[in-house]
Specification:
By secondary structure, the chain is an alpha/beta fold. It is 34% helix and 9% strand. This is Acetoin utilization protein AcuC.
C-alpha cells in the first residue's frame, strides 16, 4: 500500500467553465486548493494530474452519438441538441476536452484505489452527477461519477456503493445503474416537489433484478444539520452493512448549505465536516477503507465551497482541521478584491453544533416522515425491518 490518500488536481480543471456568469464557476475549485494549501492540508502531498477519459471509458455510460455532438458543438452553426446550448449547459470552447478531463480525473482516482496505491482518492472537480447517456443536464456534460463506477465494474469490482449528499437528486448516476444490482445508489436530496430535477422519490427503487439498489431520501426545505444527520444515519449505514461494498464512491456537493443560492436546505460548514467524517468512517467499516470522494454542486463560491471542500480534503487525508481554525489572512487578501461586497468568513466554522439524535421511529416531524417513507420503501428489499430503529 502506498500513500494513504491521493488528491487528483491540476489547474487545467479550471477549463471546465460553462460561461463567464454561469453559477458553476471554477473559481470555487481554485479557491479551495489555495485555502487547503495555505492551511497546510496539502503539505507534502504529491498531486496526481488528471488525464482525459478515453472514448471507450466514456462510452460505458454515454452514447457514441452524444460524444460526437459534444465534440462538434463548439464549431457548429446548428442546434446539435442533446441538451447542449441551453442556459444550464451552454456550449463552450474545448467542451469535450474539458469534460473528458474531469471524467478522466475521476477514473484516475479510482485506478489509484484499485491498483493498491492508496485506500482513498479525491477529485473535487468531479461529481457531475446529472449528465445522462445521451444528453447534458444540470451543468454536467459527462457524468464522471458514473464513468468511474463503470470503469471499476469493468475491472472486476463486484459491489460498489454510491452515496450522493448533494442537494439535488443524483439522477444521472441512478439512471446509469438502475438495472444493475452491482451498484447501490443512495441519494439524500431536497424533496423533488420543491427542487430540480424533480426526481428522487422513495418509490424509485431500481428495475427487475436490482430492486432496492436505488435508494432515495427526499428531505423537506429547511432541513438543518441535526435533522439531516439523523436522516442519514437512519438509512445509510444499515444499507451499506447489508450491501457490503468493495468501494464507496461519494458525491460531496456543498449546495446543502443554508447560504447556497440555488436550493433551500439549511446545513452549515460544520454539518458538512461531520458528513465527510461519517463517510470516512463508513468506508472504513464497510468498504475496506476504499473511498473515492468527488465534488459536486455548491454555488456560494467564496464563503462556503472553499471551506467545505478544504474540510473534505483534510478528512480524506486524515488531517482533520479544528473548526475554529482561522481562515488565513493571505487567502482573504487574495480573495477579497474579487468580491469586494461579500464579507469573507474569519474561520473554518459557522459556529454550529452538528450534533444529532438517533432516529427512534416515533417522531412525526417532516424529516422523520421522510425517513419513514424511505425505510418502508427499501428496507424490506434488503431484509431489514423499516420500523425497528435498531435496523
Amino acid at each position: 500500500m502506498g500513500a494513504r490518500a491521493v488528491v487528483v488536481w491540476d489547474g487545467s480543471f479550471l477549463e471546465y467553465k460553462l460561461s463567464e456568469d454561469h453559477p458553476l464557476n471554477p473559481i470555487r475549485l481554485d479557491l479551495t486548493i489555495r485555502l487547503a494549501r495555505e492551511l497546510g492540508v496539502l503539505d507534502g502531498v504529491d498531486l496526481l494530474p488528471p488525464r482525459p477519459a478515453e472514448d471507450e471509458e466514456l462510452e460505458r455510460v454515454h452514447e457514441p452519438g452524444y460524444l460526437a455532438a459534444v465534440r462538434a458543438a463548439p464549431a457548429a452553426d446548428w442546434d446539435v441538441g442533446h441538451g447542449l446550448g441551453t442556459p444550464d449547459n451552454p456550449v463552450f470552447d474545448r467542451m469535450h476536452e474539458a469534460s473528458a478531463l474531469v471524467a478522466g480525473g475521476s477514473v484516475a482516482a479510482a485506478e489509484q484505489i484499485l491498483n493498491g496505491s492508496t485506500h482513498r482518492a479525491v477529485n473535487i472537480a468531479g461529481g457531475l452527477h446529472h449528465a445522462m447517456a445521451d444528453h447534458a443536464a444540470g451543468f454536467c456534460v459527462y457524468n464522471d461519477c458514473a464513468v468511474a463506477i463503470a470503469w471499476m465494474l469493468a475491472q472486476g469490482v463486484e459491489r460498489i456503493a454510491y452515496v450522493d449528499v448533494d442537494v439535488h437528486h443524483g439522477d444521472g448516476v441512478q439512471a446509469a445503474f438502475y438495472a444493475d444490482p452491482r451498484v447501490l445508489t443512495l441519494s439524500l436530496h431536497q424533496n423533488p416537489l420543491t427542487l430540480w430535477p424533480g426526481t428522487g422519490y422513495p418509490e424509485e427503487l431500481g428495475l427487475d433484478g436490482a430492486e432496492g439498489c436505488a435508494v432515495n431520501l427526499a428531505l423537506p426545505p429547511g432541513t438543518n444539520d441535526e435533522e439531516w444527520l439523523r436522516a442519514f444515519h437512519a438509512v445509510v449505514p444499515s444499507l451499506l452493512a447489508r450491501f457490503r461494498p468493495q468501494v464507496l464512491v461519494t458525491q460531496c456537493g456543498a449546495d446543502t448549505h443554508r447560504e447556497d443560492p440555488l436550493a433551500e436546505l439549511s446545513l452549515s460548514v460544520d454539518g458538512h465536516r461531520t458528513i465527510y467524517r461519517a463517510l470516512r468512517d463508513l468506508a472504513e467499516e464497510h468498504a475496506q477503507g476504499r473511498w473515492l470522494a468527488l465534488g459536486g454542486g455548491g454555488y456560494s463560491l467564496f464563503r462556503v465551497v472553499p471551506r467545505s471542500w478544504t474540510h473534505l480534503l483534510a478528512t480524506v487525508l486524515d488531517r482533520d482541521l479544528d473548526p475554529n481554525t482561522p481562515v488565513p489572512a493571505g487567502w482573504v487578501a487574495r480573495t477579497a478584491p474579487i468580491v469586494p461586497h461579500v464579507p469573507l468568513p474569519a474561520s473554518m466554522t459557522d459556529g454550529c453544533d452538528p450534533g444529532w439524535v438517533r432516529w427512534e421511529g416515533a417522531a412525526d416531524t417532516p424529516v422523520d416522515r421522510a425517513i419513514r417513507q424511505t425505510r418502508r420503501a427499501v428496507f424490506p428489499l434488503h431484509g431489514l425491518d423499516p420500523d425497528d430503529p435498531r435496523d
